[in-house]
């Protein structure tokens, strides 16, 4: 098994090559014709389908891993985390709340429309002003986008904004074709999306696959592949089988128990790398039994995080009491790598809370959304049963789970794993209140202050104070930092990215 350090911000998922229409692998286990004059088709097996093509209305890495090949940001991050030009060539601050961006000229959307400042204004003001959009909370800091000329914009924030470049280089900030959407409507766009990226939309067979094809009008380097196929295969065993028989070129979320088998196969190898993703429980703090802090603490103390890591993840993972992992701005190291397992104390807390004879909670989990999510939910339910908490466990397929979570109908508690695409503590706390109803005034005051604080040292301390409070109040019970496991065809040059995003043109054949 190859392993990469936490500073390796290179490439995530990817794919090999194949002849168009050729479904049978050759003797080497790779699709025929790869790199030999035939059409180069890259196929990746994912654990779930995309949410859709509204770049502002999702918060999922898996969906963004498709979007990044179709759309562009103003700013992008290099493999080592540095900001680089994308649709913006340069930027500067003209006053504490105004950033000026010079845009790239000659860029075309896939439908032929030119990219201009009007598209920047339309895209960013849409996500910054429409509260119904999932990414609104991460962009509401933008007060206005002023057009200086066709290729110059001023982005004006409500207050000082220390992480604007981070916001503009992550999901939720892709540029949309304003003319097309204004003329045809957003529904027409969602059925036939167009961006400025190296690959354009071909088809989406819901719960099966998304297919993109290269475009000859891309402003950057020529696309390396003729076609990208993102297959949705929720079943772990099926993903592994498809990889090992040459049906796909890369498979994500390889079960730890299958990593050795993949690595020993003649044509495939297993890879693993760190992520910013933390698996956690989100608990309702305004209603039901989990509104009692003693019940939330009892749930935390009843869970043996080390046992979860050992039994379900083959030891790959790290227990944590915070969602902000090392390497993320605002991390508090003394809360990472620690857990509190004390079932006897958990029983005592339940007794003090008036549940000496036990209680029942409703728990929602998912299958195929995150590695071992179903098994983790079942393991936790069994542990809670040991201290007298009966669990009504509902396991949902990924899209159904997302619907219930966004609607706030997931019962008393749900399991989720969040990554940090901004590499800043501010991002994860955007889900705190929506997921749990938590509204501690002290926490809200600290987060509000940190959001606009340009003093990095003060801002870091504010985030660390928040983590100390949350570790005691437990609106979220953080479980473990996840490791990303992949299986790939050996003919690929591939390195996992810590942000788990798939940039197809960072993938090459050996």
TrEMBL record:
Gene3D superfamilies: Dipeptide-binding Protein, Domain 1, Dipeptide-binding Protein, Domain 3, Periplasmic binding protein-like II. This is ABC transporter substrate-binding protein. Keywords: Signal, Transport. It comes from Paenibacillus radicis (ex Xue et al. 2023). It is found in: Cell membrane. The keyword Acyltransferase does not apply. Belongs to the bacterial solute-binding protein 5 family. PANTHER family: OLIGOPEPTIDE-BINDING PROTEIN APPA, PERIPLASMIC BINDING COMPONENT OF ABC TRANSPORTER. InterPro entries: Peptide/Ni-bd, SBP_5, SBP_5_CS, SBP_5_dom. Residues 82-435 form the Solute-binding protein family domain. It holds the Pfam family SBP_bac_5. Residues 1-20 form the signal peptide. It is a lipid-anchor.
């Amino acid at each position: 098994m190859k392993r990469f350090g936490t500073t390796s911000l290179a490439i995530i998922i990817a794919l090999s090559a194949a002849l168009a229409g050729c479904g049978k692998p050759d003797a080497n286990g790779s699709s025929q014709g790869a790199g030999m004059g035939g059409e180069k088709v890259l196929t990746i097996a994912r654990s779930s389908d995309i949410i859709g093509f509204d770049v502002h209305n999702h918060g999922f890495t898996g969906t963004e891993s498709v979007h990044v090949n179709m759309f562009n940001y103003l700013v992008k991050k290099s493999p080592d985390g540095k900001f680089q030009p994308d649709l913006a060539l340069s930027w500067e601050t003209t006053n504490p709340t105004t950033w000026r961006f010079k845009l790239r000229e000659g860029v075309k959307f896939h439908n032929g429309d030119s990219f201009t400042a009007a598209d920047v204004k339309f895209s960013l003001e849409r996500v910054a002003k429409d509260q119904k959009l999932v990414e609104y909370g991460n962009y509401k800091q933008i007060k206005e986008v002023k057009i200086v000329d066709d290729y110059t914009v001023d982005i004006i924030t409500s207050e000082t904004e220390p992480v604007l470049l981070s916001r503009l280089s992550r999901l939720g900030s892709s540029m949309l074709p304003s003319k097309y959407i204004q003329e045809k409507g957003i529904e027409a766009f969602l059925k036939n999306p167009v961006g400025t990226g190296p690959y354009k939309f071909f088809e989406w067979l819901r719960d099966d696959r998304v297919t993109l094809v290269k475009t000859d009008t891309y402003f950057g380097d020529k696309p390396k592949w003729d076609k990208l196929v993102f297959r949705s295969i929720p079943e772990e065993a099926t993903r592994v089988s498809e990889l090992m028989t040459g049906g796909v070129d890369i498979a994500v979320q390889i079960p730890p128990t299958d990593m050795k088998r993949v690595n020993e196969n003649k044509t495939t190898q297993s890879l693993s790398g760190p992520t910013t993703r933390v698996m956690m429980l989100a608990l309702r703090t305004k209603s039901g039994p989990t509104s009692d802090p003693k019940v939330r603490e009892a749930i935390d103390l009843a869970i043996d995080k080390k046992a979860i890591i050992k039994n379900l993840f083959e030891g790959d993972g790290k227990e944590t009491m915070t969602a902000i992992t090392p390497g993320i701005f605002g991390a508090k190291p003394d809360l990472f790598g620690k857990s509190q397992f004390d079932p006897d104390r958990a029983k005592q807390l339940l007794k003090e809370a008036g549940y000496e004879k036990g209680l029942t909670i409703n728990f929602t989990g998912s299958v195929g959304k995150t590695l071992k999510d179903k098994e983790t939910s079942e393991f936790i339910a069994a542990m809670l049963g040991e201290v007298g908490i009966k669990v009504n466990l509902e396991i949902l397929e990924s899209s159904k789970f997302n619907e219930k979570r966004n609607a706030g109908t997931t019962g008393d508690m749900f399991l989720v794993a969040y990554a940090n695409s901004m590499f800043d503590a501010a991002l994860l706390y955007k889900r705190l209140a929506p997921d749990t109803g938590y509204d501690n005034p002290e926490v809200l005051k600290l987060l509000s202050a940190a959001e606009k604080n340009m003093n990095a040292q003060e801002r870091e301390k504010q985030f660390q104070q928040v983590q100390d409070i949350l570790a005691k109040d437990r609106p979220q019970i953080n479980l473990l930092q996840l490791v990303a496991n992949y299986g790939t065809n050996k003919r690929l040059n591939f390195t996992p990215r810590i942000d788990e995003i798939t940039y197809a043109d960072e993938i090459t054949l050996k």
